[in-house]
Amino acid sequence: MLQFCEDYNIDGAIRAAVVNDRSNLSWAVFNRAGEILRANTPNWLAPGLTAEEIAEARATISNMHDAPFAGTVYIRYNALPACGHSTNYATGEAEHGVSCYRAAWDLVAGCYRRSGPGLDGAAFSYLLQGADIFLISGREIGIGADGEPLLHDPSVLAELCFDRDKDGYTVK
């Protein structure tokens, strides 16, 4: 089985790595046309991708989805507070910025996923309550009481909805 992510050393490249079934360190970096740009040097621990895995990687890459927004983005439940800061509901005290979760784009599924720190229970609670969900950007200025990022001058990029089939968030 292969796992895919962006390769941050080569702009626009996709890294495919072996996970689970073969449990080794084999990987290759592909451009969006499916050509191999780099790969691990084969050895006993990482023998390299098989021909079948290379074919699977090329097929998956040809169907990948580009993120609708560039740069660092965040997921925010409920509208942005007019006062410019969130409230810690456990203590009633104001946070130093607007609470959110980091968002990561899943190239294969074509959706955003929550990533990084933050209270999972709060996110589940918001989903169960049917809270509005937004994709936002802003300048990260600190960490909130629940370990979540805090933003200064956040702005809404799009409204999101949770897609159960993709197990992630898509733009409405």
Describe the overall structure.
By secondary structure, this protein is mostly beta strands. It has helices spanning 51-62, 120-129, and strands at 2-6, 14-18, 27-30, 36-39, 74-77, 98-99, 101-106, 111-115, 133-143, 149-163, 168-171. It has two domains: 2-62, no CATH class; 74-171, no CATH class. The protein contains two helices and eleven strands; from the N terminus they run ββββαββββαβββ. A hairpin with a 5-residue loop joins β3 (27-30) and β4. The longest helix is centred in the first third of the chain and has 12 residues, at 51-62. The chain is elongated and about 55 Å long. It starts with a strand and ends with a strand. The mean pLDDT is 93.
Instruction: Count the beta strands.
Output: 11
- Beta-strand percentage range: 35-45%
| SSE string | EEEEHEEEEHEEE
Helix content: 10-25%
Structural class: mainly beta
Shape: elongated
Query: Helix segment count?
Result: 2
In total, how many domains does the architecture comprise?
2
End-to-end separation in angstroms reads 31 Å
Q: Averaging pLDDT over every residue, what do you get?
A: 93
Biggest β-sheet, characterized? Answer: 7 strands, antiparallel
Spans where pLDDT lies below 50 across 5 or more residues: none
Rg calc:
19 Å
List keywords for this structure.
2 domains, mainly beta, 2 helices, 172 residues
